């Protein structure tokens, strides 16, 4: 310290001791300090603050940033402010309020500033700090929450959808996507965002929440943005990543459950029935077939569904479960679907294939057991008894003969059962068991039936219990009372061992009989004196049933 400086300091101390009201240094009153202060003002920092300036002696206001309608911006510690303020602002926190009293020698001294501040005036600044940053600052971010699994994170050239709340460093909100009830949708790394946000949103997972702090020179800089973002404002963005995809993305398929022994997979042209849950990438549901208690039914690869689903539905097995992720350019694009699906939304479908078929499919028959001896096989006009279980292809049981006291009975060719079951029952031996897959055009068609969904493929498990060969062409007579013995002799009136068409006798007396048509139709008639046989019957060819 030189002699001149030493003398000045001695004089200053003497003056202070003689005049108790004279300040030697700045007096700082921190009368409102925030509980959390992540950063304090340091030399070379830039700050943005509001203030009211008054004289110490009479409290008269000489300046105010509030009156000018904008905060004051300056750099601290480099002589751009009066010395007293350079000192008094050190260590201050955002949202802190200070009362800084500056003696004349640390303010405008014995000269003052024209007609605003008189000479030797002690000044009092009531300061509210709004912002602080440094030219060395970088974008800062802190992850608030993150999903347990993250298969993909955002990268440059990705298209993202995110929600955000935007505030200034002092806490005032300047914008919010939530207030508009719409995500902000944009490309990353293409210059569509302010630089700091372009950087701060990189590496995020869908469902991740971040707080991103952006210094002014990486935000809106000296000009600010409209009336909400002032010049040189640090921005705080609380972001939630909702969606991410790349224009080069294709459909992504993950098999969740694959049935064993899959012998056939879906191809273009097949008709498929499947259940699904549809969600967005963040897990928000938008549609579900389960809620409607009805499968979604459509053709595969023929443009009846969105392109991504058309592609994902190929190569599936009945019973298979898949998760399908479809980018928007293969779904509903930028337009979305009304209020249901927003524009540029990635869709996630968890699908379960119930069944599928092709309109050209025949009935599929698999023999699961065949007896060693099989001399007689079922055919047209045969009366059969059989056991069955009828289920959907996913195993849902619809009907079973076990629910009744006895096996089912039908006459093949009598149109008493669906066509596919008719096909499946043909050519069976007693004791034989089969699995028969019946496509809907051989079953109940698009409309279905009681308990059977429309367009359902049916699986029948069959076992032939009894077989009685069919009736010859014409009528079969079954006496309900006592049967003439021998019966043939009663019909062979002329004794030539044949009963041709038209043979009759006025002397034959036959009791009430049941007439059974070979087509399965029955009627009861009273046969009196004569009997007309539609076709000739030779000895041993007359059928008798119990």
Automatic annotation (TrEMBL):
Enzyme nomenclature, EC number: 5.2.1.8
Database matches in Pfam families: FKBP_C
UniProt keywords, alphabetically: Calcium, Endoplasmic reticulum, Glycoprotein, Isomerase, Metal-binding, Repeat, Rotamase, Signal
SUPFAM superfamilies documented for this protein: FKBP-like
MF (Gene Ontology): metal ion binding; peptidyl-prolyl cis-trans isomerase activity
Gene3D superfamilies in UniProt: 3.10.50.40
Entry's Gene Ontology cellular component terms: endoplasmic reticulum
Signal peptide annotation: 1-18
Coiled-coil region list: none
PPIase FKBP-type domain: residues covered: 44-133, 157-245, 269-357, 381-468
Enzyme class: isomerase
Catalysed reactions, as listed in the record: [protein]-peptidylproline (omega=180) = [protein]-peptidylproline (omega=0)
Keyword Nucleus among record annotations: no
Subcellular location: Endoplasmic reticulum
Role played: PPIases accelerate the folding of proteins during protein synthesis.
Protein name, entry field: peptidylprolyl isomerase
């Amino acid at each position: 310290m030189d002699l001149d400086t030493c003398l000045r300091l001695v004089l200053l101390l003497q003056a202070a001791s003689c005049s108790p009201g004279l300040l030697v240094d700045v007096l700082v009153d921190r009368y409102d300090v925030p509980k959390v202060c992540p950063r304090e003002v340091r030399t070379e920092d830039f700050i943005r603050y509001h203030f009211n300036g008054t004289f110490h002696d009479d409290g008269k206001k000489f300046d105010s940033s509030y009156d000018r309608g904008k905060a004051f911006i300056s750099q601290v510690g480099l002589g751009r402010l009066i010395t007293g303020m350079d000192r008094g602002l050190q260590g201050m926190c955002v949202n802190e309020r200070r009362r800084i009293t500056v003696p004349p020698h640390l303010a405008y001294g014995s000269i003052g500033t024209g007609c605003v501040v008189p000479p030797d005036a002690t000044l009092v600044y009531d300061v509210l700090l709004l912002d602080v940053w440094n030219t060395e600052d970088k974008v800062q971010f802190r992850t608030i929450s993150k999903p347990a699994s993250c298969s993909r994170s955002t990268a440059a050239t990705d298209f993202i959808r995110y929600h955000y709340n935007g505030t200034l460093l002092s806490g005032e909100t300047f914008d919010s996507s939530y207030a508009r009830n719409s995500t902000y949708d944009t490309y990353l790394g293409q210059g569509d965002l302010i630089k700091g946000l372009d950087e701060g949103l990189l590496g995020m997972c869908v469902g991740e929440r971040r707080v991103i702090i952006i210094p002014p020179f990486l935000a809106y800089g000296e000009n600010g943005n409209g009336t909400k973002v002032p010049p040189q404002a640090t921005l705080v963005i609380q972001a939630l990543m909702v969606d991410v995809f790349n224009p080069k993305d294709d459909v992504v398929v993950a098999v969740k459950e694959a049935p064993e022994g899959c012998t056939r997979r879906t191809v273009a042209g097949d008709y498929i029935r499947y259940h699904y849950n549809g969600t967005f990438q963040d897990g928000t549901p938008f549609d579900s077939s389960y809620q409607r208690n009805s499968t979604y039914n459509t053709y595969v690869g023929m443009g009846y569904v969105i392109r991504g689903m058309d592609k994902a539905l190929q190569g599936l097995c009945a019973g298979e479960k898949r998760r399908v992720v479809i980018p928007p350019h293969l779904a509903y694009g930028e337009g979305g679907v009304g209020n249901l699906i927003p524009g540029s939304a990635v869709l996630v479908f968890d699908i379960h294939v119930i069944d599928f078929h092709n309109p050209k499919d025949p009935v599929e028959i698999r023999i699961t057991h065949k007896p060693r001896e099989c001399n007689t096989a079922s055919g047209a006009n045969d009366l059969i008894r059989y056991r069955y279980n009828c289920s959907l292809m996913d195993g849902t049981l619809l009907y079973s003969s076990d629910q009744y006291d006895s096996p089912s009975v039908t006459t093949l060719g009598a149109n008493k059962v669906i066509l596919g079951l008719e096909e499946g029952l043909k050519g069976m031996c007693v004791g034989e068991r089969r699995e028969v897959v019946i496509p809907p055009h051989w079953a109940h068609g698009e409309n279905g039936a009681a308990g059977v969904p429309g367009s359902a493929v049916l699986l029948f498990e069959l076992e032939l219990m009894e077989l009685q060969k069919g009736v010859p062409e014409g009528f079969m007579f079954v006496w309900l009372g006592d049967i003439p013995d021998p019966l043939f002799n009663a019909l062979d009136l002329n004794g030539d061992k044949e009963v041709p068409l038209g043979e009759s006798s006025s002397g034959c007396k036959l009791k009430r009989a049941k007439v059974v048509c070979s087509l399965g139709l029955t009627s009861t008639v009273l046969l009196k004196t004569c009997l007309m046989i539609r076709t000739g019957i030779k000895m041993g060819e007359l059928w008798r049933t119990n």
